[in-house]
Amino acid sequence: MGSESAHTPGAERDPEPAPRLTAHIVVGDNGESECTIHPADATSEELLTTWITAVGDSFVELAAMR
């Protein structure tokens, strides 16, 4: 009774900051948009594997999802 802890392990640590991202949006000749996102501080070697691309209507404005 009354011996349960309200302590959350790791709660005293500050959360790690979210990585800064860079987004590149390109509209092709056919009018289809492509958005590629990668870490802002990625090295040229990291850019080979650390990215994500959305094409056409598979991405939306952030404000539309809030």
Structure commentary:
The protein has 66 residues and is mainly beta. The protein has a domain at 21-65. 6% of the residues lie in helices and 27% in strands. The protein contains 1 helix and 3 strands. A 3-stranded antiparallel β-sheet has the order 1-2-3, with no helix packed on it. A hairpin with a 5-residue loop joins β1 and β2 (33-39). The protein is flat, with a radius of gyration of 20 Å. The mean pLDDT is 83.
Summarize the structure.
This protein has 66 residues and is mostly beta strands. The chain is 6% helix and 27% strand.
Q: Widest sheet: strand order?
A: 1-2-3
Overall strand count: 3
Question: Helices and strands, in N-to-C order?
Answer: EEEH
Strand content: 25-35%
How far apart are the termini? Answer: 43 Å
Query: Rg, please?
Result: 20 Å
List the helices and strands and how they pair.
Layout: E1 21-27, E2 33-39, E3 52-55, H1 62-65
Protein name: DUF7511 domain-containing protein
Region (Disordered): 1-20
Domain DUF7511: 21-66
Question: Which features characterize this protein?
Answer:
mainly beta, 3-stranded antiparallel β-sheet, 3 strands, DUF7511, DUF7511 domain-containing protein
